[in-house]
Structure formats: C-alpha cells, structure tokens
Write a structure and sequence with these properties.
alpha+beta; Antithrombin, Chain I, domain 2; six-stranded mixed β-sheet; 11 helices; globular; Plasminogen activator inhibitor 1
Length: 409
C-alpha cells in the first residue's frame, strides 16, 4: 500500500485542512537555537492545549503563532517577581531574566526582520500616570529594543484606537481591529504587544490554470468543494512514524529566497485526524524533519485557503500552571512598578493567513492586558441575594431571607 501513498494527489491532500489548518512556517536560521527552541516548544505546547479545546473538537480551522505567544510572555517575564516569575519560568522552560537570553531575544528579532517579506515588532503601551521601574525599562530596551509609549487609559476608546492603529500598521492592514470595543477599561495600566507580518511568494508558484474544484474530505465524514491548486516539482519529502505509532508524511514547500518554508503534515490513514499528530510537535521533531527530508518529484495538490483565528488564552495558560498571574491577590509584577499591584486580565491573539497560487500572506498580533484596582471597588447587590441577621456574641441567626425582587416600602 505504501507505493500508493507516495503520490501526493488530491485523495491525500484533500484531508489537510478540515479539522484545522495544520502548518508550520519555519525560519531557516542555524544560530539562536537555545532560546528559539525553548520558545518554539512552549508555543507548541500552547497550541496543543488549544487543539484539545472546544473549537478544534467542533472541526473548526485554527491558526496560531507560537513565536508570538512565547515572545509576548517573554515580555511579561521581564516584569515578574517572586512566585509569578517562578511559575512563568517553569511553564515556559526559559526566562528572559536569565543571563544572556535578552541578547538572544534581541538578535532573534533582528534576524526575523532581516528575512525578506517578514517583519516582527514589539511595543508596550503604559498608562501615562504610572511610574515604571527603571530596571523594567532597561530590560525592555535590551531584549526588544522598545521603550514604553504613554497612553491615557481613562479615555478607553481613544486608547483602543491607538493600539489598533499600531497593530494595523505593523500587519500591513491585515489586522485592523485587534482590540474589540470594551477590551480596555479605566483600570487598564499596560498593554504588551507583539506583531508579525509575512508576505512571501512561492519559490515555484502554482499555475492558476491548473487549479480546479475538487472535493475536500473532512474528518467528520462530510465533503466540501474547494479550489485545489496543483504543482508538479521536486519537493523535500519524508515519511515518519509518531511515538504513538501513527504514520504520517511531511512535505516542505519553500518560499522565494529560501529563508522561509511551509511544512505540510498529514496522517497517511484517512480516518486519523490531523490533530492526532499535535502531540508529536516539538522543536526537536521539526529539526528531524529538516534533516531527513529528501528531494523527490511529486505532484502536490493543495487547497487554496484562508483562516482568521481569534482567541483569549487565559484559560489555556491557567491550565498550564500560569493562573497566578491572572489573580490580582497573588500576581507579583513589582519589577514593573511598585506604585500599584498589577495582574494580567487577558492574553489575546489574532492570526490571519491567506494561501493561494502566488504565495502566502500572514499576520499575527498578540497582546497581554494588565490592570490594577486602586479605587474603591463597588459591591453592587443588583442581583438576587441572601441576607442573615446574627447576634454576634451568641452566633444565633435571628432572621434570614432571600431577595429575588425587592419591593418598595
């Protein structure tokens, strides 16, 4: 049966995207492996948690930026102290507070931006009245070559517009509205941001004249018509077996300039969903693919597709042991400021990707919203409640009741 599987035609590729878009865009850089590998592994673990979530179980497509979330939380690390710092170090497998890693982060971002068609950016938007620790400012400059931008978060609509404009500018307009109305409040103190934009042409473009409608066979048994692109060429190709014994293929499709490429990964068996291979993903495994792929002539049939994914990673990161940083009572971000107690309220990511005969356009924006409560917090009994009247000396409960609909007196 194996010789039948060696030809990449539509009856194989037609299963590639239904459950979720399962692709990796890989930057071919030999240096910076220490930090890069650990960031990649953390990002892949986050993706694995997402792939087990509700959206993936419903068969929805999913696009994600491992680099984006790892870099964003690297910025969060720079401001963390105490047990919050330890939790981030444990969950992520590295800390930018470690000696030498800030320099690696800076060099990595420079290397990414030097690749043709790729831009990586970072920013920190800070409440204009909040005083930041000098050490945090220095750390941001050293690792990300960025300085905080002052924003008036009491004017939430204007602050949202400022952040959305920054993201739009750095994603070539692909993500014009990163933050939805209401995402910021007057309690917001900082928004940490990371943006990626990529536009690349295939090294060997697909001929649009060869694109034809074919059926795409989904893992739930349904079939949908898609525009299937076709290209006959020499591809780097390999066959592998996962630790669970699943056989799968990997084909690498390079972009012009050879600095970046797309790996397409697919199980051989039609009844095995692509998500079954998510646990297989690691920087070491991707390195194995790169080392063992061999050039063979094949006809590749790849659906033209686009994905627009948006997610709040708070639940995922909490499940990974990072719940403390979302709790105002326990989070320690005293390296950012000692004026107010801060915690993270949301970690957001939006990813858009478009793949066609010419190449790929992709953009990702990641943001961590940090807030504080310095004013008097209101306790509003504007929903049904219980009441008890107790004699404190004896503990006797003299009266009690339940108010479901207050009546005037």
């Amino acid at each position: 049966m194996r010789h039948l599987l060696l030809t990449l035609v539509s009856h194989i590729t037609a299963r590639m995207l239904c459950v979720r878009a399962f692709l990796l865009v890989s930057l071919c850089v030999a240096a910076l492996c220490s930090l890069q590998d650990r960031q990649t592994d953390f990002g892949l673990r986050v993706f694995s948690q997402m792939a087990d979530g509700a959206a993936a179980s419903r068969g929805e497509n999913l696009a994600f930026s491992p680099y984006g979330v790892a870099t964003l939380l690297g910025m969060v690390q720079l401001g963390a102290g105490g047990s919050t710092r330890k939790a981030l170090r444990s969950a992520m497998g590295f800390s930018l507070q470690e000696r030498g890693l800030s320099r690696q982060q800076r060099r990595q971002q420079q290397s990414l931006s030097a690749a043709g068609g790729l831009e990586a950016s970072s920013a920190v938007m800070v409440e204009r009245l909040l005083g930041l620790e000098a050490g945090f400012r220095r750390a941001l400059l050293k690792a990300f070559r960025t300085a905080p931008h002052q924003v008036d978060f009491s004017r939430t609509e204007q602050a949202t517009d400022v952040i959305n404009a920054w993201v739009s500018d750095r994603t070539a307009g692909m993500i014009p509205q990163f933050l939805a109305p209401g995402a910021l409040t007057d309690e917001t103190r900082l928004v940490l941001l990371n943006a990626l934009h990529f536009q690349g042409l295939w090294k060997l473009p697909f001929d649009p004249k060869l694109t034809q409608e074919r059926m795409f066979h989904c893992s739930n048994g349904s079939s949908v018509p898609v525009a299937m692109m076709r290209l006959t060429a020499a591809f780097r190709y390999g066959e592998f077996v996962s630790s669970d014994g699943l056989e799968y293929l990997v084909v690498e499709v390079p972009y012009e300039g050879d600095a970046l490429s797309m790996f397409l990964v697919q199980p051989f068996e039609a009844d095995v969903p692509a998500g079954a291979l998510v646990a297989e993903l690691s920087s070491q495994r991707i390195g194995q693919w790169s080392a063992e792929l061999r050039s063979v002539k094949r006809r590749l049939a790849l659906p033209r597709f686009s994905i627009d994914s948006e997610v709040n990673l708070k639940a995922v990161l909490t499940n990974m042991g990072l719940g403390e940083m979302f709790n105002l009572a326990t989070a320690d971000f005293s390296r950012i400021t000692t004026e107010e107690r801060l915690s993270v309220s949301a970690v957001l990511q939006r990813v858009k990707i478009e793949v066609n005969e010419e190449g790929t356009k992709a953009a990702a924006a990641s943001g961590a919203i940090m807030f504080s409560r310095m004013g008097v917090e209101e306790i509003a009994l504007d929903t049904p409640f219980l009441f008890l009247i107790q004699h404190k000396a004896t503990g006797a409960v003299l009266f009690m009741g339940q108010v479901n609909q207050p009546e005037p007196y």
